[in-house]
Amino acid sequence: MTTHVKNHSEARPFKCDECDKGFGKKADLKKHQLIHMGAKPLKCTICGKGFSQAFYCRIHIQSHASENNFPCTHCQKRFPTQYKLSVHERWHTTERPFICEQCGMHFFHPSGLKRHMGYHIGNRPFLCAQCGKTFVYEFDLKKHQRDHGPKPKIPCPVCQKVFGSNGLIKAHMFTHTSVKPYRCDICDKTFKQSSSLSSHKRLHTGERPYHCDMCGKTYKLNQHLKEHIIIHHTAEGHPCDQCGKVFKLPRLLKAHERLHSGERSEQTRKYSHTSRRRRHSSKRS
User: Fold this and answer.
1) What is the spatial distance between Cα 61 and Cα 79, in angstroms, rounded to a whole number?
2) 210-260, CATH topology level
3) Which stretches of 11-106 are DSSP H helices?
4) Full-model pTM
5) CA distances from 27 to 31, 34, 134, 143, 195 (A)
6) 58-96: per-residue pLDDT in tens?
């Protein structure tokens, strides 16, 4: 206990140039800086997975030796440690207790917050040799480099929709079942995907985590941010083949093309019918 209190009271003269965090020992600072560099020198002796911090390496090694004795009450998935179970359960409740002081964005895990802070610092040492784009972390560069190569095409066995990764198709498969493992802890509404629950909870919290780097406008949904950037910050457009009218968004072009073909959606027909009925009622009154 005395040592613990001493750690809080002692000066921390060794400051990290990236995030300004202080350390009492230079060796601790060097270990911390591995996080910003993306280096993972600590390897699991069983599977070879790399880690930047000994704490997470030890937890990982325990998962090889332990049985999965900790079941999730939401989806019945099992975990080798209580710690891993508690982190997993945040996906069901969307609890995000770790908050960025600069932009207010919330995170499930402290490692997510630490990684996010690197984007605020602005140091981008990883360069794509093909297009010249730079990145904060090496894993972002590797993810980007996959965009230059051929994309995998994994079809859904139920509806044949094609996905670019196993993770995407795994999340998609829930749409073909009645299982809704993600529950809102505010109103108890359930969802098939964690992303849908996260979007829903913003209705309760008012959180707008997606911000435009060009004008600072914020949005609750990433799709709304993408549409904003296309409409207000790009010159690209989608022209109508029949009349030449240009639209910023593909969905707006498709809606316009229905006017040429005479096709109207069920929602449009209902709206038109309701409008005519209201106009008729107002004339009679």
Assistant:
1) 13
2) Double Stranded RNA Binding Domain (3.30.160)
3) 26-37, 54-65, 82-93
4) 0.34
5) 6, 11, 29, 31, 40
6) 877 776 765 677 888 877 678 877 777 887 777 676 667
